[in-house]
Amino acid sequence: MGKNRKSEADQTDDNDESVNTTQTKLSWEDKVKYLSPIARPLASKRLTKKLYKVINKAKSQNSLFKGIKEVQKRLRKGDKGIVVLAGDVSPMDIITHIPIMCEERDIPYCYTPSKSELGESYGTKRQACIVLIKDHEAYKDLFTECKTKIAEIPIDY
């Protein structure tokens, strides 16, 4: 009897995996539909992919800070870098003060459309509202490219 129960549990686990693998990802246009109206400047599709790549490299070099409390603490201490915010955060009030802090400290920031993809970019299944990427020699070229492209994004209110 114990074997039968175990095999039934294995079958349900197999079914759960098939459900997870068959889920389709949203397209860029669908993600942009769920943005908050204050999510400006929004990174383009190409810039978003580059930012996710920089985030992944920064994680391997321990130059990445994630989460509202940690990023806010680092900004107050005077750390420099790039701030990437998720545009689909709800309620948006929890991160509305961060762009003001970035502008006061002359730190480039932008929004990406998905908090789940922002979390996935540094290797976790957990969603992320905000990350701070610090400069490092291992990815300096990509970092400076992203920083200049963020500065070029027009802020349309």
Automatic annotation (TrEMBL):
Residues 1-24 are annotated as: Disordered. Keywords: Nucleus, Ribonucleoprotein, RNA-binding. Residues 50-142 form the Ribosomal protein eL8/eL30/eS12/Gadd45 domain. It is found in: Nucleus, Nucleolus. It comes from the Eukaryota. GO terms for cellular component: box H/ACA snoRNP complex. Belongs to the eukaryotic ribosomal protein eL8 family. Common component of the spliceosome and rRNA processing machinery. Required for ribosome biogenesis. Part of a complex which catalyzes pseudouridylation of rRNA. This involves the isomerization of uridine such that the ribose is subsequently attached to C5, instead of the normal N1. Pseudouridine ('psi') residues may serve to stabilize the conformation of rRNAs. This is H/ACA ribonucleoprotein complex subunit 2. It comes from Biomphalaria glabrata. The lineage of its organism: Eukaryota, Metazoa, Spiralia, Lophotrochozoa, Mollusca.
